Amino acid sequence: MSYNKIKWSILLIPTVTLGVWEYVRHQFLLPYLSMELGNILTPILVLLITLTVLTTLFRKLEDTLNQLQREKAMKAAFEEREQLARELHDGISQSLFLLSVRLDKLEQTEESSDRAAVAEQIRGTVRHVYEDVRQSIANLRHAPVTTDVPWMSAVRALAEEAGIGGALSVQLDWRLSDGLLTGKEQVELLAILRESIMNVRKHANATELIVIGKPLPGGFRAVVQDDGVGATAEKLWEKGKFGIRMMRDRAEAMGWTFAVSHALNAAGSGEGTIVEIVKNQGGHHGR
């Protein structure tokens, strides 16, 4: 029996039983039962129905809810596993392939100067793989949940983590307090911010990162902007780039607008990347 059927059965059985009892009582039993005795038997009948039929239905309802919770937990675990697989494919596996290519090149290089250049490239690739592994482990240890950590603290911690090492200057202008977003919205937006910031650290070669969150009438606007090398639309959405697609899918599932564009410098030319998430008034709060 499904959850809805159990719920409606619990709601309707006492009402229907009481209605049938009153009909039978007044149509057929009134000559044999006094009004006082009938009034006494009515709550007794409801109690018997509750102790027998409804108790069984409540037990089935509890089992159904427990099963739904287990399925929800399994779905969340599969989603986290899929996200990790995407990160490994997009970052670590490609870097390891590049590393193997450069090792082959190193074996074929005879000039000492060329060998030194290739060796430096290999060191850079190894550092890149290390950073990917470290970030993947951090994502597993700090899953995007906000039940135990206040929302503002989680965002500040994310910005501070991005600035570790001193190579990236981070500016945080965050005005979305805990009460402006639902728990689901906080989880999804934090996941998008984490993925966007990780992409800046991995691929942008940026020196400055700006994270902005401002309330709008009935919604909000969040921006992650860097001054890095940027990328063309074809490069961002090419096959194998799971990070951008993951952010877009999360935003669309929440009814938000997601956009990636080039930042503009003083001369009006492209410089860096802007990731923007907007919730307009009337957008839903997630499934």
What would your notes on this structure say?
By secondary structure, the protein is α+β, with helices and mostly antiparallel strands. The protein has 2 domains: 3-70; 144-287, 2-Layer Sandwich (Heat Shock Protein 90), CATH 3.30.565. It is built from 7 helices and 5 strands. It has helices spanning 3-29, 35-108, 112-141, 151-162, 183-204, 233-236, 242-253; strands spanning 169-174, 208-216, 219-226, 257-264, 270-279. Strands 1-2-3-5-4 form a 5-stranded mixed beta sheet. A hairpin with a 2-residue loop joins strand 2 and strand 3.
Essential attributes:
elongated; Heat Shock Protein 90; 287 residues; single chain; alpha+beta
Quick overview of this protein structure:
The protein is of the alpha+beta class and 287 residues long.
Strand content: 5-15%
Span between termini: 24 Å
Task: Classify the secondary structure makeup into a structural class.
Answer: alpha+beta
Number of beta strands: 5
CATH topology descriptor of the largest domain: Heat Shock Protein 90
Q: Overall mean pLDDT score?
A: 78
CATH superfamily assignment of the largest domain?
Histidine kinase-like ATPase, C-terminal domain
Task: Summarize the helices and strands and which ones pair or pack.
Layout: H1 3-29, H2 35-108, H3 112-141, H4 151-162, E1 169-174, H5 183-204, E2 208-216, E3 219-226, H6 233-236, H7 242-253, E4 257-264, E5 270-279
Parallel strand pairs: 1-2
Antiparallel strand pairs: 2-3, 3-5, 4-5
